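queue> holo job accepted (tryptophan)
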Amino acid sequence: MTRVFSGIQPTGHLTLGNYLGAMRRWAEVDQHRAESLFCVVDLHALTMDHDPARVRRLSRQTATLLLAAGLDPDVCTVFLQSHVDEHTRLSYLLECVATDGEMRRMIQYKEKAAKERGRGGSVRLSLLTYPVLMAADILAYGTDEVPVGEDQAQHVELTRDLAVRFNQRYGQAFVVPRATLPQVAARVMNLQDPTRKMGKSDDSGAGVVYLLDEPDVVRKKVLRAVTDSGRDVVHDRAERPGLANLLDILAACTGGNPESLADVYDSYGSLKKDTAEAVVEVLRPVQARHRELCADPSYVEGVLRDGAEKARALARPTVDTAYRAIGLLPPVAEPSLSAAR
Ligand code: AMP
Ligand code: TRP
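queue> job finished
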């Protein structure tokens, strides 16, 4: 059976981009057709300046929202990355296969490092090595497919390179995975600046719809979305990015096609109004389920405990194989056993 793995960082409140670009597909499609693991990648939240209490809070909230979005622990595995040691165990081996130049070429690293330096801050070494940890997340499970938004395509490409290189040098240890990108909403853009993606750690929340935003807040953000001074409604990502983003969001929420939706509207006002309502309707059941789950935190804890146990059992043999292949001796067996041999 196909094995699917994906992850989400607890670095901010989850957004409509996370939902349309990733989570909804995990819940509606992936978990039902493949053996799937979905991981709150908390170690990745430590690569930039962080507040420990906030990471704890967001890790719990992110896991709760994954379940609220429809991930069903009876058919898939939901867990926290830091609960399964295999991720960091494997990451080190992959650091011995990756190169310094390769890491420095990662777009996300270049962007985040430049931003940090611009603020006069220092760049954590873990920000540079983070794509290797991500590769370990994926390769530890013999993953075939990685459902992610477009921004992660380069990291999955790196993961493939590392898997192929390791297998060639040290013998077959890893399945070579591939990214699967959504048909629509692969990149939901910021409503105030449609040339940037809608990200959960954006400094200003005005262009970002959060999954837990109240309906009226959602409406306000969508109605105030930046468009352009044109009048006709056309889908043109390069020339009319704000308009294209609204059409993409509406299409993703209603199951339509962004190009044909453009023909339906003759004013920006009615497009914005319908988009706002479509987003409110998509978020409504997720928010309702989130409220229920928050009332029962021990349920979520139980899911995460069982999830980590299942994940550990799956990852262990693959990571052990990689340890042997690269030249590390297995720990010596108990003396009584080796003496008996
Ligand atoms: P992150 O928020 O970086 O932890 O991303 C978690 C998942 O959501 C990844 O698969 C991302 O590709 C996806 N994602 C994040 N932001 C967006 C966005 N604005 N549009 C589409 N997908 C996104
Ligand atoms: N780097 C991903 C992001 O920022 C999150 C992530 C970490 C991930 N490990 C992963 C995604 C493994 C897919 C598979 O969105």
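queue> The pocket of adenosine monophosphate (ligand 1) is lined by residues 8-9, 17-18, 21-22, 148-149, 151-152, 185-188, 197-200 (CB under 6 Å).
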